[in-house]
Specification:
140 residues, Arc Repressor Mutant, subunit A, two-stranded antiparallel sheet, 2 strands, 6% strand
Length: 140
């Protein structure tokens, strides 16, 4: 989630006022005077005052720890592409089981990375090649 410029501006002002030696109450009053209803809540102001008082330099949020996204790798995209090329009638659930990836990730790989869509229980490319178009005309 991207932080708004207004939020960064408020944090910058808090940092500046902390360096001037203002208290949390004084800073909160000044923010209300400047931003009105859009001022930070009291607890958020105190949180940032404490952080800047302890020597924090950055006004942006720190990177959150968490499990990195590892399912949408080039290797898995290639596996799914090969699986679909071998059998276009597979459903997302069975592809997910074969490749051992969750269904939502498989769906995203199919639609976003491989640019495919579902047509009558077949996963097909959105854009047909000239050869595919000509073959369809011949068959009809």
């Amino acid at each position: 989630m991207r932080m708004s410029e207004l939020e960064l501006e408020k944090r910058t002002n808090i940092k500046f006022l902390v360096k001037l030696g203002k208290s949390g109450d004084e800073i909160r009053k000044m923010l209300v005077q400047v931003y009105g209803d859009n001022a930070m809540k009291k607890t958020a102001v105190y949180k940032w005052v404490k952080r800047f008082s302890e020597g924090r330099g950055s006004i942006t949020n720190e990177e959150k720890s968490g499990r990195p996204a590892t399912s949408r790798t080039e290797e898995n995209i290639a596996k799914i592409h090969q699986t679909v090329r071998e059998n276009r009638r597979l459903i997302v659930r069975s592809i997910a089981e074969q490749v051992n990836i969750d269904r939502e990730t498989v769906r995203k790989i199919l639609t976003e990375d491989l640019d495919m869509r579902k047509v009558c229980a077949k996963m097909v490319p959105k854009e047909l090649t000239e050869e595919q178009k000509q073959r369809r005309v011949t068959i009809c």
